[in-house]
Amino acid sequence: MQKTILITGVNGFIGRNLAQALRTSYRIVGTGRTATTPAIALNDYKQIQLPHPSFEELLQKWHPNVLIHCAGYGSVPLSVHNPTVDFDAGPRLVLHVLDALRRTGVKAQFIFPSSAAVYGNPEKLPITETHPLRPLSPYGYHKILSEQIIHQYYELYKQEYIILRIFSCYGEGLTKQLLWDIAQQVHTGTVELFGTGHETRDFIHVEDLARAIEFLLAKEISISTLNLAGGQQTSVREIARLLLQELGADVPLRFKEEERKGDPLHWEADISRLQAHGFSPRISLQEGVRRFALWYLEHYGNPL
Question: What Å distances lie between residue 44 and 61, 69, 75, 103, CA to CA?
Fold first, then answer.
């Protein structure tokens, strides 16, 4: 019998990409805040603002084998300016979802997209999963709290889980963060970014993220915390130049020489634990940026 996956936040960037990738092999049920049903066909969609009592009804109706919790906010600046909102959408919501599983008795594997923000500025590169957790923002602290709640529910209630510490996820359809900001600024004639441009990130395309989750489910991996990244660092200046080239935008690239609160200086993930399971990303940064640029040009036209 075909297994069922419930995705909270299925209308979000990661949620809808997961639904798209997994729907050929699984029944997909989703929740979201908006009344609009996702463009992709789902077996069921429920518009609810979590936490909500009717979430338990959905669990009892479908008895999902897997619950991927994508609901919440993914913004460091938002967490800095409004930590209460980020807390409510982070640890508090994780607790609600896990306890709904406990109360209903639904035995679903819980998959949680955490973040490399838990590491902050690392002592050394590449960053392993055992690196000290020293976040720089409420967002990072709230991801740690969420992970601790997940561990609590495993220790006390044997709730199985996979925690994925995602580094810089990007791809077609993402209308926020670095690539989007660059493309949106091109029409002004100048692209100006925070920092010096020498800061580094470790990028992973959302298609590889979805492939990784599908792979881990097929391998029946459980009770595991894994870095999810490309496994190499790229400077902000380098990726900005690459995107401008793919957009055909010959505009000045400038940096404010000012750090944005909550942003790390350098990231490079050690993904050997993930690779030991047999998975490696396959979309190169150049290919991923090219695909983002083609998507942007198709949907928003030439930014010049």
Answer: 10, 16, 28, 22
- Residue 20, domain extent: 4-171+203-230
Q: Is pLDDT at 267 greater than 90 in this prediction?
A: yes
Helix axis angle for 91-104 and 138-157, nearest 10°, is 20
Nearest-angstrom CA–CA distance, 162 and 68: 9
Query: For the whole model, what pTM was predicted?
Result: 0.95
Count structural domains, the chain.
1
Q: Which residue has the tokens 């359809």?
A: 173
Using DSSP bridges, classify how beta strands 234-235 and 200-201 pair: parallel, antiparallel or unpaired: antiparallel
Looking at the domain assignment, is residue 28 inside a domain? Answer: yes
Neighbours of 115 (CB within 10 A): 24
Q: In the beta sheet, which residues pair with residue 5? A: 28, 66
Q: Which whole number is the average pLDDT over 137-155?
A: 98
Give a yes or no: residue 271 inside a domain: no
Is-contact 144 180, C-beta < 8 A?
no
We report the CATH number of the domain holding residue 80 as 3.40.50.720
| Domain presence at residue 51 | yes
Residue 131, Cβ density class (10 Å: 0-12 exposed, 13-18 middle, ≥19 buried): buried
**Closest to 236 measured CA to CA, from 174, 178, 183:** 178
